Amino acid sequence: MIAQKKRILFVVQGLSKGGMERRVLELIGALSKRNDFLCRVIVQNSSIEYSYIYDMDVVLDVYNKSKLERFLSFFKIYLIARDWQPDLIHTWGSLSALFSVPTKVLLKIPIINNQITSSTPVRNRLSKLINFFNFKFSNFILSNSEAGLLAYNPPPHKSGVIHNGMNLERFNVQACAIKEEIGIPEDSLIVVMVSRFSLGKDYDTLLEVARKVCEVIANLYFLLVGDGPERPRIQSKAEAMRITERVKLLGKRKDVEAILLSSDIGVLLSNVSIVTEGLSNAVMEYMAAGLPVIATNAGGNPEIVDHGVTGYLVNDKDANQISEFALKLATNLVLRKEMGDRGKARIINEFSIDKFVDSHIDVIDYVINGSK
């Protein structure tokens, strides 16, 4: 007798560029290739930037082209679940979980809630209320970091951590000619930061670090990859500091992996007073590319960066300390290579995409079997 496939209905807030969105697509892609799963995906935001979802063997429903349609997501999720009869609803995002609760209650379909992706304490009363409601009706709550669990404090008897998984196939590319493209010397060293230009990222301290370090090392350049509302201000500040020859804002890029393979040091600085990371995809990407990492000692960063082994964990806004570590790495090729190699080995051994997928399958089986 052929075993019946498990039907998983994914409800995702959106598929714009981001770490959570990439993770859910890695999971959906892996499950859709297996013989024991059947996946359907509801996307509540019509902006889809990861277009490769269209190549996956899944049924795709896209909503939220208007505020009215977003409000009706409660009803749309219910109708799809009633007709398709999934074994499980897998939600990604607090609103996706909230909109799925009526379906869970009316149709008795269990929910895995994967909304915890940061470790920033929730202060807004409405957000706290939504989280309380979501956690009450979720059968299992997942975080991508231990720090996230501590910050959100879901019921411990039905929550756990699954760290991000890195698909190393993304790095089966050639290092790009980024130095030639932006007109910097071929023998230059590159410090790279890949992130959205938002208030949660500490680009102000990074500019101060760049100014200090570039005064000491003549062939060191900083590449800032990404876009966002803070980018014009940071560009203006770099111009005012007269460091634009050494600090290049590259905007959004489709060749991030190739740029990382062309770089020497990866940096991620956060404004801890505003937001703290869960488990940063950017840090994992640096390590997967064999780069030593300098990251703010907050959130989930200590769960992946081994201080003094794969990189350095630094104090919030401490430009002097960050500059010291940057100089230490920039002037020691052997140290950069050793830390980079150890970081890449850690990604392979502890943060593989296979481990990420297998851990989710274990939770899926646990929740489905527990609901029967």
Please report which band the strand proportion falls in: under 5%, 5-15%, 15-25%, 25-35%, 35-45% or over 45%.
Answer: 15-25%
**Overall SS class:** alpha/beta
CATH class of the largest domain: Alpha Beta
Please identify which CATH superfamily of the largest domain we are dealing with: Glycogen Phosphorylase B
The Cα radius of gyration reads: 22 Å
Poorly predicted segments: none
Q: What is the H/E order?
A: EHEEHHEHEHEHEHEHEHEHEHEEHHH
Helix and strand arrangement:
Layout: E1 6-12, H1 19-32, E2 37-43, E3 59-62, H2 67-71, H3 73-84, E4 88-92, H4 94-107, E5 111-116, H5 125-137, E6 140-143, H6 146-152, E7 159-161, H7 178-182, E8 189-194, H8 203-216, E9 220-225, H9 231-240, E10 247-251, H10 256-261, E11 265-268, H11 281-288, E12 293-296, E13 311-314, H12 319-330, H13 333-350, H14 353-370
Parallel strand pairs: 1-2, 1-4, 2-3, 4-5, 5-6, 6-7, 8-9, 8-11, 9-10, 11-12, 12-13
Helix pairs in contact: 1-14, 3-4, 4-5, 8-12
Outline the structure in words.
This protein has 372 residues and is α/β, with parallel strands linked by helices. The protein folds into 2 domains: 6-165 and 352-370, Glycogen Phosphorylase B (Rossmann fold); 169-350, Glycogen Phosphorylase B (Rossmann fold, 3-Layer(aba) Sandwich). Helices cover 42% and strands 17% of the residues. It contains 14 helices and 13 strands. It has a 7-stranded parallel β-sheet, with helices on both faces. A 6-stranded parallel β-sheet has the order 10-9-8-11-12-13, with helices on both faces. The protein is elongated. It starts with 5 loop residues before the first strand and ends with a helix.
